[in-house]
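Propose amino acids for all 374 sites.
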């Protein structure tokens, strides 16, 4: 097996940190979030720290441990922000305080300094790995791989500290010559790179989720938009037809909404629409689908709900809107149309048209009431 040159591996690791950080800065410059800013800063800081750390046989090497420790603090801070974990008292930066204490109270023997530096780095790497493994959310497999890489890297750093304790000799990383040490350092670098790239994948996955969600929602009310409602309702209609389940559609339109816009302005109208969305959603079950269908018109699909249940739901929505004025005491009412049946080949468009006719019948009947389609 060819001899692994640790000095070359360090150059590769430093160059990769600086290159990845620079590429991320260029790629995300128009949408830099706090998480990305801190993560990029950690990559660039870590590259600088390893450059200084090469000279570990002198006091200058201690500053390298301090810079690397600070880069780990930044990395952990980025994770905390990404996962929404409490960062009270800035706890992710406490290990950096230990490193500064090491600089102030540095032991006389260099191997002791190196051992302490490795233990602090192991602690920080272990903390980041635990954050990935303990967080409950999406992408469990990816987070497990990243967290596992962090744990393994922490174990290697601890093993390095134990080795220093037993040998009590100072050997700079760049001067390591044994095949075992070179292989260990190579594995450590691979795990570190996997850790960095893995978190970048999580960031992009979160960004994709946000974009997908925004594409599904009405930007004003944050209810589902018309396109998303139709896609979801078509699937539910097919399912109910397949299994012979009832299905109900509720369409409601706000009464005299144009007058609100004309007399109080569009900002008041927007506030009314958001308020109505909140009131309506409080009346729904988890499997009901609610959307803004257009203008001041909203629509609800209630799977496996018969006529009586649909009528009760429509009345509940109407009463909630009428009983809760918008801020400033502005009273709002809605006219509600309901259609309910076991679908036998009907299209979604025909059901919506039928519920829409019932809604107009409610307006003709004096508004602020519920009309069932016959």
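Proposal:
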């Amino acid at each position: 097996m060819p001899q692994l040159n640790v000095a070359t591996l360090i150059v590769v690791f430093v160059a990769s940190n600086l290159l990845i950080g620079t590429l991320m800065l260029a790629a995300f410059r128009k949408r830099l979030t706090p998480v990305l800013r801190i993560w990029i800063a950690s990559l660039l800081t870590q590259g600088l720290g390893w450059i200084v750390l090469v000279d570990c046989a002198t006091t200058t090497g201690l500053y390298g441990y301090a810079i690397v420790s600070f880069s780990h603090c930044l990395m952990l801070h980025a994770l905390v922000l990404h996962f929404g974990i409490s960062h009270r008292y800035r706890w992710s930066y406490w290990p950096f305080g230990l490193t500064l204490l090491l600089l102030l109270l540095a032991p006389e023997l260099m191997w002791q300094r190196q051992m302490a530096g490795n233990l602090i780095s192991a602690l920080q790497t272990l903390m980041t790995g635990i954050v990935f493994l303990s967080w409950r959310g999406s992408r469990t497999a990816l987070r497990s791989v990243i967290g596992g890489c962090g744990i393994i890297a922490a174990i290697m750093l601890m093993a390095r500290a134990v080795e220093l304790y037993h040998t009590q000799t100072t050997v700079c990383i760049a001067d390591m010559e044994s095949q075992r040490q070179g292989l260990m350092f190579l594995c450590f670098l691979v795990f570190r790179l996997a850790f960095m790239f893995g978190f970048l994948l999580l960031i992009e996955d979160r960004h994709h989720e946000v974009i997908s969600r925004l594409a599904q929602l009405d930007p004003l009310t944050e209810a589902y938009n018309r396109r998303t409602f139709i896609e979801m309702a078509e699937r539910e209609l097919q399912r109910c037809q397949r299994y012979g389940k009832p299905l109900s559609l509720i369409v409601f339109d706000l009464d005299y909404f144009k007058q609100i816009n004309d007399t109080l302005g569009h900002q008041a109208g927007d506030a009314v629409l958001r308020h109505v969305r909140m009131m309506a959603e409080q009346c729904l079950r988890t499997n009901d689908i609610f959307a803004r269908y257009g203008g001041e018109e909203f629509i609800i699909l209630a799977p496996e709900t018969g006529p009586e249940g649909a009528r009760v739901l429509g009345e509940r929505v109407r009463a909630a809107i009428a009983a809760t004025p918008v801020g400033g005491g502005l009273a709002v009412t809605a006219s509600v149309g309901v259609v309910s049946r076991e679908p036998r080949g009907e299209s979604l468009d025909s059901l919506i048209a039928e519920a829409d006719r019932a809604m107009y019948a409610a307006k003709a009947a004096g508004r602020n009431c519920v009309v069932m389609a016959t």
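The chain has two domains: 6-216, 226-372. The chain has twelve helices and five strands.
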